Structure formats: structure tokens, C-alpha cells
């Protein structure tokens, strides 16, 4: 009941924020004041109107951003209600395959990191929905192909993996009543450079590991052994990424997600963290 109540508070708080910003947009469009208009030259009036237009656009962008954040909070609340393992992870972003500034290149092994899995799923999706050499597909043909692919990808992209990670306590929404490190921001690191592979992802830390993470501190390194499984989501109502692209879109009608089943977590020092490659993966055989 605590999780449901806190979720209602989160939704209400976000709703109030949206209402305030919407009022600001309307108020901004109503300005400038009549008295000021009487003393303005045409050039000054044009500048003032342009400034008001810019402020209104910024406020509208902020409203859209808050709406996206509200949707994300609702998704997280739904995940918390479901509970259990493995957990469904739907990251907000991944790094380019070449690695952006300050980040390591994304490994080619599909299970080496969330970003690696995203790009592998993109390639698999394109192959499954190419329709090369066949007549122009109807929308129904495409939807059926994507639906089938989301099921097949779970079998084809799955296996045990070892990730080098850092875990930082996630910023909790006001009013939530969860134990310390119940949720964390996880960054997967390259084993040689210790640079991040892609963007951090928000995860739920299983109860048996929370004290270990808390005692080690936020700058510690961990080796995480987990079963990783692609879990793309079929969404017949979403053909394009949209402004914020959340959840990440693999391709038309397919959203990115994966299951993470924690097996083992142990802290290591920096010297040990720099040894070896980017981790070990044991992919499952297709169809298993």
C-alpha cells in the first residue's frame, strides 16, 4: 500500500507542476502590460513580443519534459508494484556505437553492456523486418513481423554475463518509503579504461545485495554476474521515437527493454577492475 500511495503523491506533485507551468505559458502570452505598450515604439514592441514568444516556447518545452518524466515515474511505479526478479529495465539512453566524449566504445558482444544489447537488437530488428525481395508490406504485415520479432529476440539474445559496474544510490522521489539502495544508478564500465559504456541505467537492487553496496560506498567497483535477456516491448501505437524517445525506440512499434536477473555481486579494488577484458558472456543457444 505504501508504494501505491507514494506513487499517487508523485503523480499529483507532477500534475501540480504541469498546471503551474501551463499557467505561466498563458500569463506570458498575455503580457506585455497595456501601460507599457502605450510607451513602446514599434521596434521595441516587436522585441518585447519576440522575447515573450521565446519564453512561451521554453515553458511549453518544460511542460513536455515534465509530461515525459511523469510517464517515466508511472512506469517505475508499475515496476515496483510487480516486484520479483528478474527485473525489467528500460533505459532512457545509450551511447553511440563509437563511444561519445568521455565514454568507451560499445563492445560488439550483445551481452557486454546495455548499449551493446540495444545495438544488437536494432540489427536483429532490421533483419526481421526488411521484407527484401518481397512485395510492399501492408501495415498489418509490418505489425505482425514486429510482434513476432519481439518474441523471438528473447530467445536469441539471452545468456549469463559479467559486468564491471559502479552503483550510486538513486535520487528518490519525495514521499517514497523505500530502503536505502533499493534503487540505484548503475554504470557499466570498460575493464581497461574504466570509462563508462553508455549512459547509466536505473535498476532495483535485490535486497540481499543492498547492505554490500551501501557499505562499499558510491565510488566502489563491483563485478556483477547476471542473466541478461532481451525483452523488447511491442507497441502498435508508436511508430516514431518522438522528442524525448522514452522508452528508447528500436524501430517502428518496438521499444527497448531487457531483463536483469542478479546472480552474484562482489566489490573489487581498482587494480583488479582494470584486469582482463570487458567481461565474460555466455550466450544462450537460439531456441533454448
What can you see in these coordinates?
- The chain has 288 residues and is α+β, with helices and mostly antiparallel strands.
- It is 43% helix and 20% strand.
- The chain is built from seven helices and ten strands.
- The chain has helices spanning 2-30, 34-39, 42-82, 114-128, 139-156, 207-216, 270-273; strands spanning 87-89, 158-169, 183-189, 201-204, 221-230, 233-234, 249-251, 254-255, 258-268, 281-283.
- The strands form two sheets. Strands 1, 2, 3, 4, 5, 9 and 10 form a seven-stranded antiparallel sheet that branches. Strands 6-8-7 form a three-stranded antiparallel sheet, covered by helices on one side.
- A hairpin with a 2-residue loop joins strand 7 and strand 8 (254-255).
- Helix 1 runs antiparallel to helix 3 and helix 4 crosses helix 5 (139-156).
- It is globular.
- The two termini are 38 Å apart.
- Residues 1-18, 29-35, 79-85 and 277-288 have low confidence and may be disordered.
Features:
10 strands, 288 residues, disordered C terminus, alpha+beta, 3-stranded antiparallel beta sheet, 7 helices, disordered N terminus
